[in-house]
Amino acid sequence: MVEFLDLDLHLINNNVASNNFDKRDSFKFHMIKTPTARGGRVRSTTPAEDRYIVLSSKRNRRTTAQQVANQFLAASGKQISRNTVARRLRGGGLYAHRPVVCLLLTRQHRTARLQWCREHHNWTEQDWACVIFSDESRFCLSSDCRRQLVMRESGTAYRPENIQEKDRYPTCSIMVWAGIMINGRTRLQVVVSGTMTSQRYIDEVLLPHVRLFRGAVGDKFVFMDDNATYRTLAVQDYLDSEGIQRLVWPARSPDLNPIGNVWDALGRQVAGRNYPPTNKNTLIHALTEEWDKLPQQLLDNIVQSMVRRVECCITLHGGHIRTDTFL
Questions:
Q1: Fewest CB within 10 angstroms: 24, 208, 228, 296, which?
Q2: What pTM, to 2 d.p., does this model score?
C-alpha cells in the first residue's frame, strides 16, 4: 500500500511539472486524499467521559441534556454541546420520555395494597364478573404541554425512578362518574358544579345507577368505589338498606381499578374526533357520545384483567403496576 501511494504521488508530481495533469490524474489524486477524510471528525469525549455523562443522567433522570453538559463542564473543564450529550445518552440507551404519572404511595399505602391483593389473590374471573367497578375522572379541554421529561431506557416506564407521582387533580376540568362490569355499564354521569356530598352521591349515583345493577345481578352483586371523603356513614347505611355489598378498596389505588383503562380509551376517542370539543358543553357532549360508542368487549376484557392486576401488585410488593398492559 505504501509503494502504491509513493508511485501515485511520483506520477502526480511529474504530471504537474509537465503540465500534463488530466482528469484521470485528478481523480487519482482525489482517491489518495479521501482515506484521510474518511476518518471522520474526532470525538469530543472519551469512552470514560461517555460513561460519566450516562451515569450523571441516571443519577437524576429528570436532568436535561443542557444541565448534564453544564455538570460536565464543571467537573472536567471541557465544554460540550447539549446535542453531544443527547447523542451520548442515546448511545447509552437513554431517551427522553414523559414520565408515567402516579399517585404518591407511602410505605403504609404499599403495605395496605399488598395485603388487599393477597386477600383477593384467589378470586377468579367469575368472582370479578359480579363486581361493578366505578370511579370519577376529570377531563380537560387541553393537556399540560409543559410536562417534565425523564431520561430512561426503552420499556422501563414503570420503574420507580421513572415515575412522576402527583397529589392533586388538574384544574379547569369537568368531572364524570361511571361504572363498568362484565356485560354492562352505567350511563356516564356528569357531576355538575358544586361539591359532591354524601346526599348528592346517593341521589345522583347510587339511586339511578347502582341500585339498578343490584336488582339485575342479584345477591352476588358487589359494588366497588374508592375512598373519597363523601363516602360517609349515610352512604354505607343506604348501601346496607338496599342489600348492596361494598368492596373495600385500598387507598390511592386507581391503577388496580380497571375503569382507569376505560377512561384512557375514552379520552383518546374524544381527542380523535373530527371536531374536538372547544368548551365545556361540547366536551360533555363528546364524552357522553363516545362513552356510548365504546365496545362492550373492550370493557369486558379490561374487567377480566383483575386477576393479573392482583398478581402484578403482589409481585411488586404493593408498588405501582403497569396499567398499559391490560388494554
A1: 24
A2: 0.67
